[in-house]
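Quick one: structure for this chain?
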Amino acid sequence: MSRRVVAGLFHSLDGVVSEPNLFQFDSFDADLGRLMGEVLGPVDEVVMGRKGYRQWAAYWPGHNDPDDFGPFINPIRKHVASRTLTQADLTWENSHLIEGDLLDFVRRLKEADGGDISVQGSISVVRQLFLAGLLDRLTLITHPVIAGAGERLFGPETPTTRLRLLDHEVTTAGNVVVTYGLRAS
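Got it. Here's what it folds into:
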């Protein structure tokens, strides 16, 4: 049986997924915390990109408040996709450089024993894995805000891609949480 690869991104109404700290404000509510706990519970490995790794490795080590993200992300096995970093650059606990092709690596990882694999802190890795059919669940957490500027998950170069709705919920703060999978052709 194949492991699931999952990803969740904070999202503004106008589609911005980068730097959610600039538009999240007070919309992170108890409902959203519960949903994130449910999603992260079965995860035992993480795939990250270079930019996200660098940002998070500069912040999360040493942050271990039990009500925060640190106790999840610090000890977990982190696989980092990068063409420029070396294994010696990966000083954050339990971080490993992905050797070779990202898609081949994730295919092999899916077939290994273990829990869910989560893509964290990388918009480009989420995009690549989703469009390649390797991301089983894409959760978009749309905050009730228009961000205006920032990177979007999919751009005009993305081919038309049909999706199927897997789950949805609206939180008390007005977040719309939708989970999609690729629709079989």
